[in-house]
Amino acid sequence: MKIAKELSLILGISMIGEMLNQVLPLPVPAGVYGLFLMLLLLCSGIIKLEDVEGTGNFLLDNMTPMFIPAGVGIIRYMDQVMQVGIPYLVINVLSTAAVFVVTGKVAQYVMVRTQKNEDKEGEKA
Amino acid sequence: MKEILENSIYFGFFVTIGAYLAGLFIKKKLKLAIFNPLMLAIFLVMGILAATGVDYEAYEKGGQFVSGLLTPATVCLAIPLYKQLHLLRKHGLAVAVGITSGVVTSAVCIFLLCKVFGLGHQHYVTLLPKSITTAIGMGVSEEAGGIVTLTVMSIVITGIVGNMCAEVFCKLARITHPVAKGLAIGTSAHALGTAKALELGEVEGAMSSLSIAVAGLMTVIVVPLVSGLI
User: How far is A11 from chain B (nearest CA, A)?
Assistant: First the structure.
């Protein structure tokens, strides 16, 4: 009963996300519409955390294997991959590393700076 | 044998879960970051398909029982985000500046590397949306005139790299704050990286989830602005 209730809430929101994806002319995937809808419903208290948390955490804990079929799907494009494989691989690896490091470093720098400023203001007061 | 397997809906389902289990087992035995369970599982399934002669479409009939859970799982990313919402209020500036710098870095990096490899306009726009979640990336690539299949491939490779190397990148670049870790993972490696971020911790998972959406939407705006450069 509890699982059925949790699952129907999650699947219902997924369905609404998919409907929005078809109706609205934006390139936003169903899951992202659903994410914001779920967040909105949780924040407004219409859905309680305990109404979705059990099944929700099960799905989140097992998210990694959900990407396996997409990864295997690369074999369909093997002929295209062979033509541009090496540059694509190098570009993908290097740019991912660069984006990762810049995002993390910049965010960390901003947090340290704002923390210091807050500390200074604290001292003045 | 091939037909018997192709007619079994559970073949793809079983092989997907089984390969992941094998990947986890190998990772546990060998304890090296390079043996990422997801990557191992993908290669294992590819090997099984090659060995049995089952084609991808037949495998996917069962595989979609697993991949089909991705949309509801994405919806559930709202759960850690909701629980960590106070962090977003506290670190709003770091979140905004961090993700923006990541999106810009991605565009600059791809521009420079395409120049280095002498790739033309079509490959440039194919690669531009590679750090964002598949569903948004496909739309962006199509709109810009890229090769959608290669965009999808790049998105998957990017995700695997992020999933595989997240901990190594954090260590090497001394990214220690959980909020910064989560933003870095989500901005660089979308949902596939986020699966790793959730393993690292709830704060990392929440920030990574948020980054998928924000970086994805920002990229939708940035790509048309820079797509004319090559």
Answer: 6
Interval B61-76: pLDDT, tens: 999 999 999 899 989 9
Q: Are A56 and B134 a contacting pair at CB < 8 A? A: no
Please name which of B61, B74, B47 lies closest in space to residue B135, comparing C-alpha atoms.
B74
Q: Furthest-apart CA pair in chain A: how many Å?
A: 67
Interface of B with A in 50-109 (CB under 8 A): 56, 59-60, 63-64, 66-67, 69-83, 85, 91, 93-95, 97-99, 101-102, 105-106, 109
Is the Cβ of A119 closer than 8 Å to some Cβ of chain B? no
Best of A49, A89, A91 to substitute, by most chain B Cβ atoms within 10 angstroms, is: A91
Count CB neighbours of A97 within 10 A: 19
Q: Is residue B159 a contact partner of residue B191, using CB atoms and an 8 Å limit?
A: yes
What is the band of B18 on the pLDDT scale with cuts at 50, 70, 90? very high
Nearest CA-CA partner of B11 in B24, B21, B23, B2: B2
Let me know: does B212 contact B77? Beta carbons within 8 Å: yes
Spatial distance between the Cα atoms of B207 and B58, rounded to a whole number of angstroms: 37
Give dist(CA A27, CA A25) in Å, integer: 7
pLDDT of the residue at B152: 85
Q: Write down the domain spans for chain B.
A: 2-68, 78-229
Which residues of chain B neighbour A39 with C-beta distances below 8 Å?
Answer: 78, 81-82
Interchain CB contact of B49 with A (< 8 Å): yes
- Cα separation, A79 vs B130, in Å, equals 20
Instruction: Check pLDDT > 90 for residue B2.
Output: no
CB contact under 8 A, B76 and A10: yes
What is the complex's ipTM, to 2 decimals?
0.89
pLDDT of B132 higher than 70: yes
Asked whether the beta carbons of B29 and B10 are under 8 A apart, the reply is no
